[in-house]
Amino acid sequence: MAPKPRAKKTSAQYAEDIKSWYTKAQANPTNEEAQKKLNYFVGAWEKTLKKQIIRANNEGNPWEESNLDMPIRRMPTKAQSGDYQTADYMFYYEGAGCAGYGGLLVERKGGDKKRGGPQDLYGTLMVAGNCERFYREIKRFQDDKRFTQMVVIAECSFEQFLLYVPPFLGNERNTEHVGASVEARRGKIASLYARGVPVIFCGTRYNAIEVYKALIRQWIIKNYQSILGLDKVQYDDRASLINKIAYHEAELEALNASLAGIDALEVLA
Question: Which residue has the higher pLDDT, 265 or 49?
Answer without folding.
Answer: 49
